[in-house]
């Protein structure tokens, strides 16, 4: 018990850092994924902005990035990170790498949900003379918002997972803390407290996502 | 009446679904002139190309060849913003309603007004007016899934009319509705045509829809228009095999095949079919002529139908009597009634 009291300040601090990393990379990767996923949907054959060449490029890009194990991507993106965020190590760089991986993962999730939208709804909007951009803003996104929220919730949990290996490049967070002070120092109390906190965080996120989606879909 | 929608040798071909597959000819060299203020029906079996044809009129699909004009505007030549401006003048309703589930009834009806940039206060006034017109004044804040099919289609109609279009395209608009609701929706469409002067193009495989509201009708088969005429003419004197098959589903026409065999087994004597319209002599003349000749007969098949408010009848009778007397009685009955023996 006294040991838990001793590690509590670190536990809370590292949980805070993890949540910050997850939130920031979710926002960045979420926006990127929404843009690329929507672009895949509208440029595909029969889409409102059908554009075979662009679709092909995006599709290959997504298929190239998605299968790369994150721990390898984290190392491989270092040169790009030095250009974009100024360094190839640390928590900021880890956020950058997670955001890249999340962008391509979320892009597929977004595309899959948009494809499920009944084509007739888009056709009805086209028949009113609405422009493609207006249809994206007022029909495609609002009509799929419920499933999109569930898709993003799914993505958050993958991001929590990715944030755990940030320690590889000197990033902080709960995962790094569990590896450095739990695993490497044979301190099972540290490992298990980190694990329990992660499980609680994930449960809360899932509950929040479910509640939000239910509210949007009115069921 | 002036021509409102003119299709001139319009074709639509879709590329093959698979590489090396065959090109699909959905619409094949169709020419049509639809007049301002009329209700024009396009009938045909599934896959005849009627849904594609209607999507060419508002250019949801570009034509492969030929041209389409709405009034003076060559809509098939337009692209981008100029096309979209024209599309706001053509409303469309769908078999599955295609309402936005993320919006209330009022939000759905307001959609075309947002597209055309109508200010919020004016939008609200117009939405209230439209919901009143379609009989849904109290349901403005409901969501589509809280409404019945007929009510959802009313919302679809209100949405289609929001931007005050001069043309309304109805793509199988009643096919997902039960017969009673179909009647209500058709009455509403008739009102749209009568009170607002909107030209309506109705695509359907339901013949009741056409006989009830269409002034004129085109029959499609394999991408081509094979027959065009007033609904009354097409239904009383179909010229093509496909039109005859359609007509028989509503007008209980001539007994054929098994029906005819069954009638022959049940009734002795000769079978005659009398067809008559409201233009000529009534069927009563036939009956009195037979009675005067002392010939006995039974009514065995057929009925009298109402097409666009006009009478059309096809009655088959079994006649027993001396052959000469029967022939004499039926000869020279008069104009407007034809008597044909079923052999």
What does this structure look like?
Chain A has nine helices and no strands. Chain A is an all-alpha fold and 219 residues long. Chain A has one domain (2-217): MetI-like fold (Orthogonal Bundle). In chain A, helix 1 (2-43) packs antiparallel against helix 2 and helix 2 crosses helix 5 (90-115). The N and C termini of chain A lie far apart (44 Å). The model of chain A has no long low-confidence stretch (mean pLDDT 92). In chain B, 36% of the residues lie in helices and 29% in strands. In chain B, the strands form three sheets. Chain B has a six-stranded mixed sheet, with helices on both faces. Chain B has a four-stranded antiparallel sheet with strand order 11-12-10-13. Chain B has a three-stranded antiparallel sheet with strand order 2-1-4, with helices on one face. Chain B contains twelve helices and 13 strands. Chain B has helices spanning 50-57, 80-87, 105-115, 120-133, 149-161, 179-196, 207-213, 231-236, 241-250, 257-266, 283-292, 323-330; strands spanning 3-14, 24-35, 39-43, 65-70, 90-94, 167-171, 199-204, 216-221, 224-230, 270-277, 296-307, 310-320, 337-342. In chain B, helix 3 (105-115) packs parallel to helix 5, helix 4 (120-133) packs across helix 5 (149-161) and helix 5 (149-161) packs parallel to helix 6. Chain B is of the alpha/beta class and 343 residues long. The relative contact order of chain B is 0.12. Chain B has two domains: 3-250, P-loop containing nucleotide triphosphate hydrolases (Rossmann fold, 3-Layer(aba) Sandwich); 257-342, ACT domain (Alpha-Beta Plaits), CATH 3.30.70. The chains are: A mainly alpha (219), B alpha/beta (343). The A-B interface holds A 118, 120-121, 123-131, 134, 138-139, 142-143, 145, 216, 218 and B 58, 60, 81, 84-88, 90-92, 94, 96, 98-103, 111-112, 114-116, 143, 145, 159, 163, 169. Chain B: This is Methionine import ATP-binding protein MetN. Chain B: InterPro entries: AAA+_ATPase, ABC_transporter-like_ATP-bd, ABC_transporter-like_CS, ACT-like_dom_sf, MetN_ABC_transporter-like, NIL_domain, P-loop_NTPase. Chain B: One of its GO terms (molecular function) is ATP hydrolysis activity.
